[in-house]
Amino acid sequence: MKVVTAEEMYDMDHRTIQEIGIDGKLLMENAGRAMAEQIASVSDKMACIRVFAGGGNNGGDGFVIARVLLELGVRVSVVQVVPDEKIKGDALFHKNLLIRCGGDVEVLMESAPIQAIARKTDIIVDAMLGIGVSGVLREPLAQIVKAVNETDAYVIAVDIPSGLPANEESDDFQAVQADETIIAGYPKVSAFLEKTAPYYGNWNTVSFGLPRTITAEHSHRQVWTPEMFQKTMPERKPNAHKGNHGRGLVIGGNSEMPGSMAMTVSAALRTGAGLVTAATVKEVIPTIAAHCAEATYLALNDTDGYADGSSAIPFENFDAAVLGMGLGRRPEAAKIVQQAIKTRLPLIIDADGLFHLKGMLQHVKQREEPVVLTPHPGEMAMLLDIGVPELLKSPFSYSKRFAEEYHVYVVLKGRFTIVTTPEGNQTVSDAGNSGLAKGGTGDVLSGVTLAMIMQKQPIPEALNNACFVHGKSAELLTKETHSVYDLMATDVIKGIKKVYRTFQA
């Protein structure tokens, strides 16, 4: 499923009409009918539904929705919140069609009567403004949106909640707070941004006839789905042995943070790595062994319980490495990161490894082997020398720019994890929940990622599958045995088997 900007969506619509020859009225009919059928399927026929319609295509969709609901025997009427001269083109065609079919359209542009109507309404269908909005709303729409948000009615937004920006970089807006949004075609970027996503409520998409020849060109941004995981996750051959599934190296740990290494190692083995070696200070080895008897160990030289760079690590004996968890920020640890960058195997760099990496990014550009960075927003902002709020306004853009400049894969962790390739292709993982907002879950993801990139699959698929397994483990556990409050990182490791049994059976 693609993720698009407003401009990309407009381009697909325009080219479908101009190049393919599908009339805009038909596209509007398709979208509105599909939405109306969804609304009818979840609403009581006795419920009072009012469509709040504006100008443009969003209002036109609203007129179609009202007509189709009328055909289905639903109690529905339209409140038009713009003057008649604002209803033009395809939207005017469908408004007139609604009226000729017996539909009721009342023009109201004052917040007081709209508030009174809203109080007597069970379901409000928000079709006032579409994806072209930017900036603060003008009156009277600002007051109308405020009135909708103050009602007790169930609010269903058409394509996007009115007033909400579709793209990044907008943080000054006033929008309808929808309970549910029915998106036409593809979800917009703002459905995956920390500040704007909550306004959508629960959302789903409907198809309205965009041909594949047009939509295929917009494929550099997509959502990773369970179907994609099932399609791309490699199957284990009956005669496979441990060497077929990777010899992984995990580097990090210190005497004050032994658990981070233990979780990464355990997660890698649970995910399917053939062999995992923990390279850490001697004091940490018993802690890891107590949690994971299957691992092997490499003792690193240390200073005051922290690994330093005086150990010669035999990278050539491994298929991939992950480093940074509990490594510490002492200057001596930077030498370990320097060693790793000079190797000829795939690297995953997390946590303290990212701190040391910041001064070595120019060297990373020269590597031929893949480098995967797995920052949370604070770490990503540090690498970019910007503030976290600025990053969160435009996480897609910043991740893309960074990945392309330094020729790395970026896994920007968050409620919506964004995976970006060195070519700038991006995938969003929406798997997971707030139970993952705990210390240690990033260490678990590092282990899952290590195991995945050692399986026989392309790196982008491996990273997306790692995020899927990690997030789905949390979802399945909180659905069956845990809550988002008590879920711990070690529980997520145990839940990996549930993901495989559910999606790979």
UniProtKB/TrEMBL annotation:
Please report the stretch or stretches of sequence annotated as the YjeF C-terminal domain: 225-503
UniProt binding sites for (6S)-NADPHX: 57-61, 130-136, 159, 326, 376, 443
Enumerate the Gene Ontology biological process terms: metabolite repair; nicotinamide nucleotide metabolic process
Which cofactors does the annotated protein need, by name?
Answer: K(+); Mg(2+)
What reaction(s) does this enzyme catalyze? (6R)-NADHX = (6S)-NADHX; (6R)-NADPHX = (6S)-NADPHX; (6S)-NADPHX + ADP = AMP + phosphate + NADPH + H(+); (6S)-NADHX + ADP = AMP + phosphate + NADH + H(+)
What InterPro entries does the entry give?
Answer: CARKD (IPR000631), Nnr (IPR030677), Ribokinase-like (IPR029056), YjeF_N_dom (IPR004443), YjeF_N_dom_sf (IPR036652)
- Span of domain YjeF N-terminal: 9-216
Which positions are annotated as binding AMP? K413, G414, R415, F416, T417, G442
- Describe the family membership recorded for this protein in Swiss-Prot or TrEMBL: In the N-terminal section; belongs to the NnrE/AIBP family.
Quaternary structure? Answer: Homotetramer.
The protein depicted here goes by the name Bifunctional NAD(P)H-hydrate repair enzyme
**Organism encoding this protein:** Lentibacillus persicus
